[in-house]
Amino acid sequence: MRSILIVGLGSIGRRHARVFRAAGIEEISGADLRQDRLDQARNEVGPAELTRDYKELLARKRFDAVLVTLPTAYHTPVIRDAVAAGTHVFVEKPVAHAPDGLAGIVAEAERKQLIAYTAYCYRFAPSAERMKAIVDSGRLGRVLSARLMISTYLPDWHPWEDYRGFYMARLDQGGGARLDESHGIDLLRWMFGDIASVSALVSKVSDLEIQADDLTTMTLRFRNGVVGEAHFDLLGRTPRVGAELIGSEGTLLWDRITGKIDVFDAATKQWAHEDFGPQSFVTCYDRQAAHFIDCVRNGGTPRTTLADGCKTLDVLVAALRSSNEGRVIKLPA
What we know:
Blueprint: E1 3-7, H1 11-22, E2 27-31, H2 35-45, E3 49-51, H3 54-60, E4 65-68, H4 75-84, E5 88-92, H5 102-111, E6 116-119, H6 126-137, E7 143-153, H7 154-157, H8 177-180, H9 183-192, E8 195-203, E9 215-222, E10 227-233, E11 235-247, E12 250-255, E13 260-265, E14 270-275, H10 283-298, H11 306-325, E15 329-330
Parallel strand pairs: 1-2, 1-4, 2-3, 4-5, 5-6, 7-10
Antiparallel strand pairs: 7-11, 8-9, 8-15, 9-10, 11-12, 12-13, 13-14
Helix pairs in contact: 1-2, 1-10, 4-5
């Protein structure tokens, strides 16, 4: 693997450009409709080629992979075009804002034996990996309850731009807490498997000048019996990302911001503490890129496939439906 095309050169697209360059990818091209982002990419990355028309470039050149880093509402056509061109694909989370057409794309990617990866990078954070390892070890006993929170203040997210123009503020571009903070659903599914049902409230409660939801809460029942709660908001005046897992033999507290894990052992009545440090999280981008490159080069299975990302999207869609209809929504087996 030596060449990639990044479609969408906002902050996350340019971050991936830098990360993949550092990982040894020699040829990086980019596409974006905004000239200012093309200029930023030219200054920051020194790409092989820049364009406003990714389709023309995709038709003219052969790439090993396409990275889809546009606002969520615009993902599906680019994924479709990349798979049709026979390139591996790396899609920023969530896969899309709606599932329309994705099943056929997943089937085509599988038929062509393409690596199709959904970029839920939290799975590569050292503290998150450790949390899953503790769950899998049985140290907590049977996990009964899982609560997860992701909270941030939208105007502080990109301080260099007016938050009202940021895609996260716009429903028509796939913004909002429910979709963008879906890392939490992916993490819970990673640890506990598929979700059987969801009850949710998707709402706009603050004075923020946005069209999308700024608060989403979900109650989840997993097929293995775990009961989960997920809280996503764009209101928190200090960032908070964490989880509390209650098991029959112990309790685990995870703080992504500080990189700390605390485990209470019911038998000894003692707490054990592990500290990965607040800077450990940022390594997830480098580790994710290395994983994707390795999968492309050696034919491995991605930690989060496109199909897996679609299952998380199904939960997000069910949550919106639950909120709109005021009832519990069951997910297909």
